[in-house]
Amino acid sequence: MTPTETVEAFIAMWNNGDFAAMEGVFTDDAVYHNIPMEPVTGKAAIIAVINGFMADVNHCDWETHHIAANGGVVLTERTDRFMMNSGKVAAVRVMGTFEIDSDGLISAWRDYFDSAEMAREFGMGAPGDG
What we know:
six-stranded mixed beta sheet
């Protein structure tokens, strides 16, 4: 797969609820940085964060507006929608950067978003509000 196809497959895993398959798309030492939160290192830690976040989510719909690649770096402009178990829908605009290694695995994933929008959509304090 091309780096773009790898990212598109990863997004499809979110949209299909195939979280078990996600472990297979990361390198062992991958870094996930959901900015402005602290980065997480290692595929097991990344999957643990995803599973924790998804505990209150019934379904995802990540809509990719734009995707561009330069070598092994793929940039996405998305709207990530989460259908919560409560019935609420939370939508956050996201810019994502994915670094794909020579084996076609994600070695780094950074998402940038407005923390006030995230807090409003998810009904919580802004990240880092202790």
